[in-house]
Amino acid sequence: MVREVLLLTALASLAPAQTIYRTPDGQERRIGNPSYDGRFVFTRIRYSGPLFGGTRWSHDYPAADFYISDALDTLTRMRVNDESTNVLTLEDDRIFDNPVLYVSEPGYWRISDKGAANLRLHLLKGGLVIFDDFEHQDEWDGMAAQMAKVLPERRWITIDVHHPIFHSVFDLKKLDVPHPTVDVEPDYRALFVNDDPNGRMLALANHNCDIAEYWEWSADERFPVDVTSGAYELGVNYIIYAMTH
Question: What integer pLDDT is reported at residue 50 of this predicted model?
Fold first, then answer.
């Protein structure tokens, strides 16, 4: 809790100056939005919400963000800035420099009119938003209500392992990354252009999932290697699919 309070204090103003953070495996990283230089930067959305002063957005941050960036840099040919990550609000026009946006615990997310307009434009221009770490029907309903302000004309479609997003780098045969702490059945749903699952994906929801938890604690022996590897495979597939479609 102390670590989270210090981290959130450092992030409060999101000033250009960067703060040094030491990841669980001892690496020093820079917290603070880097200047745009054309490389891919993992971009997390900061939002307000009804609980804990709106800090739900920061679950698993920043270690998860750095570790998935490392995986992308190591396992793909994409140009990745793995030294820093972004934390942006949807009202910030810098989201348009970053084609993939990540939202944690979206069951508690609330979107402003400006944020909804920005996110809609971002997605229609070719972006993808990924929702992760939320469970049960009430949290799904909370997220879906916010996205209805963004893309009211689109409907959520359940996808399975046969969808191309699960084969963009790693050819997954099954979806077997369970929620790390809650006994729920993971399911994956998406929004598509024209509600066509063969078309371009606009939003992806990892419902009853928390893949970033596995990224954050991937060096912890309490987390099985095969499941942690599966969480990285999902994340890499998601981002490479978004960047190539």
Answer: 56
Q: Which two tokens mark 216? A: 């954050």
Q: What is the 3-state secondary structure (H, E, C) of the chain?
A: CHHHHHHHHHHCCCCCCCEEEECCCCCEEEECCCCCCCCECCEEECCECCCHHHHHHHCCCCHHHHHHHHHHHHHCCCCECCCEEEEECCCCHHHHHCCEEEEECHHHCECCHHHHHHHHHHHHCCCEEEEEEECHHHHHHHHHHHHHHHCCCCCCEEECCCCHHHHCCCCCCCCCCCCCCCCCCCEEEEEEHHHCCCCCEEEEEEECECHHHHHHCCCCCCCCHHHHHHHHHHHHHHHHHHHHC
Beta carbons of 166 and 172 less than 8 angstroms apart: yes
pLDDT value of position 17: 53
Is 104 in contact with 133 (CB distance < 8 Å)?
yes
> What parts of the chain have a pLDDT lower than 50?
1-16, 51-54
- Which domains, and CATH codes, for the chain? 2-244 (3.40.50.12140)
CA-nearest of 2, 42, 36 to 16 is 36
| pLDDT of res. 49 | 65
Can you give the pLDDT at residue 6?
38
CA angle 122, 213, 230 (to 5 degrees): 85
* Tens digits of residue pLDDT in 104-145: 999 999 999 999 999 999 999 999 999 999 999 999 999 999
Neighbours of 98 (CB within 10 A): 19
- Cβ contact 23:66 at 8 Å: yes
